[in-house]
Amino acid sequence: MTKHDPNLSLLFHALADPTRRSILTRLAEGPAPVTELSEPTGLRLPTVMRHLSVLEEAGLIATSKDGRVRTCAIVPEALRPVRTWLDEQRALWETRLDRLEAFAMKAMKERTP
Known about the structure:
By secondary structure, this protein is α+β, with helices and mostly antiparallel strands. 62% of the residues lie in helices and 12% in strands.
């Protein structure tokens, strides 16, 4: 069994929410101020700030403040552990499914006269 990675859990928790995923999608286009990120959500600013806090805690975004304007930027390399874990899971399940297919084919051949 794979060792529990708390950082991976933080990443998946952050990615689990559709609002946070939409914020990341917007930030993939470039940095944006918090007010711009909050507009399409329809949420109040404090709620958006909590979402941004979760993203920042997971390392998916970085924020900076210039005067009264807080700007957020995506940190794409933070997704690397998720990608690695998903690749490992894909390889594991492909191997299992290949073995299942071989077993099923062998069983079908043995049943055929």
